[in-house]
TrEMBL record:
Tree of life domain: Bacteria
GO MF, any single term: alpha-L-arabinofuranosidase activity
Record-annotated Glycoside hydrolase family 2 immunoglobulin-like beta-sandwich domain positions: 174-263
Any coiled-coil regions, as ranges: none
Gene3D superfamilies cross-referenced by the UniProt entry: 2.80.10.50, Galactose-binding domain-like, Glycosidases, Immunoglobulins
Protein name as catalogued: Glycoside hydrolase
All residue ranges annotated as the Glycosyl hydrolases family 2 sugar binding domain in the record: 31-129
Taxonomic source organism: Phytohabitans flavus
Amino acid sequence: MTRPDWLNLNGEWQLRQSATDDAPQFNTTLPERVNVPFPVESALSGVMRAAGDNRNYLFYRRTFTVPAGWSGRRVQLHFGAVDWQTTVWLNGSQVGAHSGGYDAFTFDITPQLNGGTNEVVVKVWDPSDTRQNGSLPPIGKQTKTPNGIFYTPSSGIWQTVWLEPTPVSSISSVDLNPNLSNNTIRVRVFTRGDVTGHSVLAEALNGGTVVGSATGGFAEFAVPVPNARRWTPDDPFLYNLRVTLRNASGAQVDQTTHYFGMRQVSVGMVNGVLRPLLNGQFVFQTGTLDQGYWPDGVYTAPTDAALAFDLQKHKDLGFNMVRKHIKVEPQRWFYHADRLGLLVWQDIPSLTAQDVNADNAQQAQFEAEAREIVNEHRSSPSVVAYTVYNEGWGERALADTQRVGNAVKSQDPTRLVNVHSGYNCCQSLGNPGNGDIDDWHMYLGPASPLPSASRVAVLGEFGGLGLHTPGHEWSPSGGFFAYEWQPDSTALTNRYVGLVQGVQNLMVGKGLSAAVYTEITDLEGELNGFLTYDRQVVKMDQARVRAANQALIAASRSLPSTARVQLPVNGRVSFQVTTPGYTDRYLRHQNSLAYTEVVNAASPALLKNDATYTVRAGLADASCYSFESVNFPGQFLRHANSRVQNSVNDGSALLRADATWCARGGLTGGGVSLESYNYRGSYLRHANAEVWMGDGSGGAAYNSPAPWAADATWNIVAPWAP
């Protein structure tokens, strides 16, 4: 939301740091200088104080003069974000207070203005993770003792401070919600002052041309957007919106300008698998963990161009999504994501990951900050999902987790809610079971939960490949961490491309719908980024990374159907390999183990018998199948420790399950693939002439990602032993 008039208050302020809860000082020069809006721990603040500094009380002071042209209007004092508890005085009078390190707040300072030089004093208390005075604020990755995956804190003012003149009766905010079913943008206007008898004119514009307009009040109303151009990562088209507040006589009182994207987020069945949909279509969401730290600014990017840089680099690397990890960026970051076309998963910053024991007031504060974050960003077209909890950090009870997840969904039902990312990890209290998303973390991975009828399956974190880049590293502890080290850029790129192939296999075979790689940049002592912490070096081959990511996205647009297929129960069949170059081979058993071998008309009878099975109704599920050896009746094809073999049916539940396979349309789009009954998403595949069960995610040699889909697709052919 913009107006033409405003005054930036960034720049040099006076500063006083204190270890005690002092009173503010007025009309008094403070001893230090700080460059707002950079946190005091940053080099760009000019202070660069130590992470463990115990002066948790910060006092900021500066003066300003209101421009003469603003006469007769109200003056709003805006703060983008201040960490964590803020009190503001103007000319010695308190004008307001705010708790929360990641949301914007505004005070009307008109009554306190003096007509000349005005003094603003800001007091901030930021205890970080010290538990000072019984505190437990949402902090994300901040810690007074940075090490490993936890980083330097960011205290005080860390986003822009500015003044804005507004009419006495004015627009305070506007919620925008596109409706693709009738090509409208739904608009709700919130106001300040007395708006009795007022109305709102909202005009949708393509560039400067009005394409639709409507008049309404202060409930939601619809503005037509005829033949609406859909916003997507490939075509992130933005419309403009002009909102005019009019008094009872129809005269303009206030006017603001906005933008919006016409897009819809939902879930739906695609080939029998629940998937996230954008504008009714499934596209795999592939992105990185983006934690938003900078070597010179810590929480605050050095420039607006730098703020956009990391997002543009996501596009350059072929990604279509970014997970903003337990931090909330300035509105400009969301604008860049909107215009560049990135799908944003916005995390709610967590309470500390250590020794969580939140009381009711601390839990309530976490939830209040979550509500404010949703309110501020619910109109951004790029934001498609909210992540409420991460790996159990700040989690005090599973019932709380479920309740807060439901509250976020109720607050914004137009987006997906990921109640707990990585509930399979760390100190998590377990699977919440609600929300739209079932989210695992797996390092290195990849891996996937199974989608259900109500939740899509995603891999919320994986990867973490590290590479040292001397001259571009900095660690506050002197140590460096990665989940797996690689010796050089080529090896790093090769490993990444293999992981992406594994992700693609999980998408096709298990129903995975999104994956988040750790991470876009190195961070202090964590060296698993695509880029170094200073953004000077791209550590992988960018062209190969882009090609792999784009191939994954393209594959999601034409997924093969893996619906159940029928096989001839009690009939004999043979299984022909479909992998190019090996189609003269067939599945056979030898000394009980399963192999593939060349079989032809001249082959001996024993080999032909070994390569023939009788199709039976599944021993564990009659809707699936079991395969009985024709020359060893009573022995069935089963997996044991992933290796496939013949075993006698001993009547046990384990044998029945291991020997049951569900026939599906081939993973390559033709033939048949045989999915394990008790390891959903894993399939019968051959590797180096041996036959195994695997999901193609990588790891063991038999589970190699390529050419898994072909190796796990078979032609069901006439039996070699009729």
